[in-house]
Specification:
- The complex is a heterodimer.
- Chain A is of the alpha/beta class.
- Chain A contains eight helices and ten strands.
- In chain A, helix 4 packs across helix 5.
- The C terminus of chain A is likely disordered.
- Chain B folds into two domains: 269 residues, no CATH class; 60 residues, no CATH class.
- Chain B contains nine helices and 22 strands.
- Classes of the chains: A alpha/beta, B alpha/beta.
């Protein structure tokens, strides 16, 4: 069955600043859409507004999967409705193993948590995620690249309907980028995953070929086209789309990679 | 039970008035009561002497720095009586004691005490032949000397009281060069309404010996007072693991003291776990007296209801090239409170010291509160030292991450709290005990409202 992720008129802000001014997008099962934009264009805000992070405020619009409204639902309900966000900065969760977390996630979906070990092992092999990392607490002491493989592994185990990839190419070397992109591309055919790949650079799109490319600047989709649009951006940059104008370039939202237990005196 | 004895005062505003010297009027804790305790004649004099020191010293008050933030002003000894003297066997073992035995598995020795009296002792016969001693100090020929050399001066009046009223001090002694591979368990059970018990354990690990001791104090659901003292001597090149698990009733007051001396190239790995008690305090003093000695001090605590857990630590570096590494992690929920204050002391001459101190606290309810005060006192230049403390709620970022995988909000919070503890429980120095601690943490969390609703 074909599913549809429909974003219409989405407006969102962080305290004191409107970031997304009205976003309209429609992604269908099996499609790969790229959202490209310069720093500060609202890429991360789009990811987190879709997933429902509490420090982003949605002012208006609608986000649905097959007609089910996601805005207003808590994050975990959005995930259960079929949305997955591969984070730009996957955080360390001390003491919580990957398998325990995915086991809870499968159980909450009504799937058999007993499958988790097999599923994780198979995914890890597929994307070259080192087996010794499987027993570590989530993301603890993993490099940026390993964290992205880990996100992809989880995507493979959870089999969502739609995946939002928030700069999944950042911090990846070329081998990791290829492994991650291939896994996601395979998912688009294996289980009809729909993809919204949010990225600054086009290099991801050499590996994960988009069906549709959108240009995001100043909190709006300013252009939509085929794969050739990504090639054009590669040559000309975002200047033609107003991406360099100061007023349209809100400061990027600083990721809170804070460890709450970090030494405040350090 | 005499007049005036009842459940301990729970109202924090009501504080018993106390005047200097008023302790001479204590009706239950008297020199006669202390010297009438069972045991060989040689115990009488040290008991009398300890009681006299107790009488001569002021009871601690919250005005003292080391008792600041505590609830000690509320403690009224008149509410408690020394638990009855005769040993009454425990058969079967109460469930919490049995659970620990089962979790640890094969053991080298076991001591069970009930209301301060040893009611069961066993030791692997081969170890006994090699000179290992486990059991009541009253049955050891040189028990008098052993107790006398319990070296560190008592830090406060309650430790003196404990010396005077310890009915059956327990000794674990390992001769030089002997390695005891399996753990030795010392389990205490209290089930006398408003009874006071004074568990005392002396661990004597001689040169180049090795031993693991697991001590547990639990009680039935009655109010009581427990004043345990553990005294650990880790001689040169010895290796001691010591785990202390406290899970007394939520109406029990618990004032514990753990003192250790660590010799040259010796290692102490201790783990303290606290789940029970109305007010439960442990003071941990570890002195590194021999070059190259190491103390690893870990603790996990979890308070709910109106409990208060209180930890005072001292990492005392006397000798050069010594290392101490302390990590205490705790959580508070409901109206519970916790206090951690720690001091790293590096004395002149303790060059090349490495000292680390970390205390992290999770605050799970709005009404709960955690205090954390790390301190340093340094008289030496050549050292590497750090301290850190943190108090805060469940991290929203971690929670969001787990939620984004489809894990319901409350389940995500539970995973994070379990993970917070797993981080330290996985380092419990005696294998098997961590499973009991995990269950205790899970039991605390089972009735926690962590927001399953959106």
């Amino acid at each position: 069955m074909t599913s549809v992720l429909r974003i219409s008129g989405l407006r969102a802000s962080i305290p004191g600043k409107e970031i997304l001014r009205s976003i309209d997008l429609e992604v269908r099962s099996g499609e790969v859409h790229a959202v490209m934009g310069p720093n500060g264009s609202g890429k991360s805000t789009l990811s987190h507004a879709l997933m429902g992070r509490s420090d982003y405020e949605v002012q208006g619009g609608s986000v649905t999967i097959d007609g089910q409204e996601l805005l207003g639902l808590p994050t975990w309900r959005r995930a259960q409705a079929g949305l997955f966000l591969a984070m730009q900065y996957p955080i360390e969760v001390p003491g919580v193993s990957l398998e325990d977390a995915l086991g809870e996630a499968l159980a909450a979906l009504g799937r058999d948590r007993g499958e988790v070990h097999e599923l994780v092992a198979a995914e890890a092999r597929g994307i070259g995620f080192d087996e010794r990392f499987l027993t570590r607490p989530l993301n603890v002491d993993l490099s940026g690249g390993e964290r992205k493989r880990n996100e992809t592994l989880q995507l493979g185990v959870l089999r969502p309907k739609f995946a939002v990839l928030d700069e999944i190419d950042s911090g990846l070397d070329i081998d990791a980028l290829r492994a991650v992109a291939r896994r996601i591309e395979a998912a688009t055919s294996e289980h009809d995953l729909g993809v919204l790949a949010i990225t600054h650079y086009s290099r991801l799109l050499h590996e994960l070929r988009p069906d549709v490319v959108h240009v995001l600047t100043g909190g709006r989709i300013v252009a939509t086209g085929g794969p050739e649009l990504a090639q054009e951006l590669e040559r000309t940059g975002y200047a033609a789309y107003g991406g360099d104008s100061e007023e349209d370039a809100p400061a990027p939202v600083e990721p809170r990679i804070a460890d709450p237990y970090a030494d405040p005196l350090a | 039970m005499g007049a005036g004895c009842g459940p301990p005062c729970r109202d924090r505003r009501k504080r018993p008035t106390r005047s200097t010297g008023a302790r001479s009027q204590l009706s239950q804790f008297t020199v006669e009561a202390a010297t009438a305790l069972p045991g060989p004649g040689w115990l009488r004099d040290p008991r009398r002497a300890a009681f006299e020191r107790f009488q001569a010293s002021e009871l601690p008050t919250e005005a003292e720095e080391v008792w600041r933030y505590s609830r000690i002003d509320e403690l009224d000894l008149e509410r408690y009586s020394p638990a009855p003297g005769d040993p009454v066997p425990l058969d079967p073992l109460p469930a919490p004691l049995q659970a620990l035995l089962d979790a640890v598995g094969p053991r080298a020795g076991l001591v069970v005490s009930r209301n301060g009296r040893v009611v069961h002792t066993e030791l692997d016969a081969k170890l006994s032949e090699r000179g290992v001693v486990v059991g009541s100090v009253t049955e050891v020929p040189d028990g008098a000397e052993l107790l006398a050399e319990a070296s560190e001066p008592a830090p406060d009046a309650y430790v003196e009281l404990a010396t005077a009223f310890a009915a059956d001090p327990v000794l674990v002694r390992v001769p030089p060069g002997v390695a005891v591979e399996r753990p030795i368990l010392v389990l205490h059970w209290a089930d006398v309404e408003a009874g006071a018990i004074f568990p005392r354990t002396a661990v004597r690990a001689s040169e180049a010996s090795q031993v693991s001791v697991v001590e547990q104090v639990c009680s039935s659901q009655v109010p009581g007072l427990v004043v345990p003292v553990a005294d650990l001597e880790v001689a040169d090149a010895a290796n001691v693991s010591y785990v202390a698990v406290q899970d007394v009733s939520p109406e029990t007051w618990y004032i514990g003291y753990q003192a250790s001396r660590v010799g040259q190239e010796a290692t102490l790995s201790s783990f303290t776990a606290a789940f029970g008690g109305e007010y439960a305090r442990v003071r941990t003093d570890s002195r590194l007296v021999g070059r190259g000695g190491t103390s690893n001090l870990l603790a996990a605590y979890f308070g709910d209801g109106e409990q208060m857990h209180d930890f005072r630590t001292m990492q005392d570096h006397v000798a050069p090239k010594t290392t101490s590494d302390l990590l205490f992690k705790g959580a508070v929920e409901d109206l519970a409170r916790s206090v951690y204050t720690g001091l790293i002391r590096v004395r002149k001459g303790a060059a090349g010291t490495n000292a680390f101190q970390t205390n992290r606290n999770l605050v799970l309810s709005e009404g709960a509160h955690a205090n954390s005060v790390p301190n340093l006192e340094i008289d030496e230049n050549d050292l590497s030292c750090s301290h850190a403390s943190a108090v805060g709620p469940i991290d929203e970022e971690q929670r969001y991450y787990l939620e984004s995988r489809g894990i319901p909000r409350g389940v995500a919070a539970r995973l994070i709290v379990l993970g917070f503890f797993e981080d330290i429980l996985s380092r419990t120095p005696v294998r098997g005990v961590e499973s009991v601690l995990r269950k205790a943490v899970a039991a605390k969390l089972a009735h926690t409202e962590l927001g399953d609703a959106p």
